[in-house]
Structures are given as structure tokens and as C-alpha cells.
Amino acid sequence: xxxxTSSQLAQLAAEQISAGKMDLDRLNAMQxxxxxxxSIDDQEVAILHNMIQKTRPNTPLEVLHAEIEVLxxxxxxxxxxxxxxxxxxxxxNSVAAHLFHNDExxxxxxxxxxxxxIGMIERDQQYDPNEVALLEYLQDHxxxxxxxxxxxxxxxxxxT
Length: 160
Fold this sequence. Notes:
8 helices
């Protein structure tokens, strides 16, 4: 990432933090900046992680649909690229935090969220290594999800 791109990305993240909430236009601008070099480095991951944490200083970490959709778009756009190792962990933990933060209880994924996740994973008709690792993580850490969704996730994993 160039110094100029890094500065612009940091500025957008600071504006998000200052606002205390996510602005979709800023989030999309951040996505475009990150994708300029078609890979995700550790500095970009750190900026995204810091921004998500600091926009919710008085609440449990809740990652919003719009944020997860940007993470999926970043992931899909950089498949096969030399992303920093921190990207995979950040991607998995962020998606899991989103899915696990609900009224059903910790570690429980409801049918609506699970179907949304399957839609996100299947929208590019590929199962990339980060998505497969995410599904494996969810299988290992989910305390409850609908049987139909467990079956579908199992089918996806069996195909990979």
C-alpha cells in the first residue's frame, strides 16, 4: 500500500470512529482504496480492526451486515493474491462475531443469519480457502443452528 493510500484509508477510518458509527459511503471508499493493489496487507487489516472496535466503545463487538458484506467483497476480490496472514483470521473472527451477536445467545446462529451467510458465500459460486476456514470455524464453535443449515454447511464443506 502506498503512503498516500495508507493516509487516505487511515483518514476515512478516523472519520468513521469520530462519527461513532459506520457510514456506507466511507466504507465503500475504504474498500476501493484497499483494492487498489489487489491484496490486503497487515496495515489495512489493523485499520479495519481498529475502526470496527472503536465505533462501538460502549457495546459488545457487533459487526454489521454492511461491514461483513465489504469484508466478503474484499475477500472475493483478492482470492489467490498474497494477502497478509492476519487477513484470514480477521475475516473469520469478524464474520463469527457478527453471526454470534444476536438475541438467541452466544454461539447460536439463527436460520435467517445462517441463510444470509450461505448467500454471501455462494454469491460468487466459489468456495475459497477463507470461506471454507470460516465454515470449519463455525462448525467447531457454534453451539446451535438449525438442522437444515447444518446440513447445507456440511454439503459445502464436502464439496471443497
